[in-house]
Amino acid sequence: MPGVNGFKEYCSRRKPILSQAVDRTLRELFQDLHVPPDETFRSLFQDGKLIRGSLVCLVNESLGGDLSSAIQRSVAVEMIHGATLIHDDFVDQDRTRRGKPAAWTITGARRAVLLGDVIFASAIEMMSDLSADDGLAVSRAIARIAKGAFQEPIDASELNRRLGAEALSDTLYDAIVDLKTGVLFGVACELGAIAAGASADVRKAFHRYGLLIGEAYQIADDLQEIEHHLSNGTVCAGDLAALAPALVRFGANPQSAIAPLLAVERSVLSPALSKCLAEMRRRMAQELERRLKLARLEVAGLVAGPRERAMIHEAPRELIAMFNEA
Which residues are in coiled coils (predicted)? Predict the structure, then answer.
């Protein structure tokens, strides 16, 4: 990767070849399904920065692998990510995604969910055709992502019941950020190591590296949500339900601040909840920083070339900076 200055530039250089490969795969898939390759669906997979696919390539090249061996694995990771967005938009009843109609608003809920399932299964098939290790890695990742989504509290009335029964664990947030977001970053880095022919120990280390990056990424996303509520001074019950695991994990006495607001659609932030959110922001920023440092430690000494080593060490922090810029 001579002449590349940082992960952001690396992503921009890899995006064209990854976009072409993703587009080719989707066209073949849609052709098999006898479904026109609607621009809305393709935008799900190509309008972003393709950072997960780029991580596959970065790890592979940093460990001495050939870029060509990483492309199909990168495509599989981006396909899985796109399928999760299709499912998430329907579950959350979001009608738009990146300024375009959500998939379920075009195809209907049933076909959108089934399309996501087909994409998941196709990614597993693609990777199983490469090797047993690749197939096992992505099938485990998809199962873990589904478990994370299943555990998220999205209904305000259910959340109120669980809070009242003290049934919302302070460990739930860590489980969700690991399963929901960390897993896909973890498997991306693991596939990069597999593509480079790395040993089992090195694969595991890079899997943990990716997990920590993904967890930090989700914390950064939640921090933006908290900043939004603090600046606006309002919050709705649905937003609180989504933030509940973080509130329990990082907030100060969250139950007394949350419970009264779950019964109304939108509320002005009380002084108690504002204080709770501000304390959350401080603690979550510390946790994000801790995970970025741990990610770097996981792969210390595993990359030989000085330029490649610097890229791997700085990528976690630069990736979060890219997210915050978006």
Answer: none
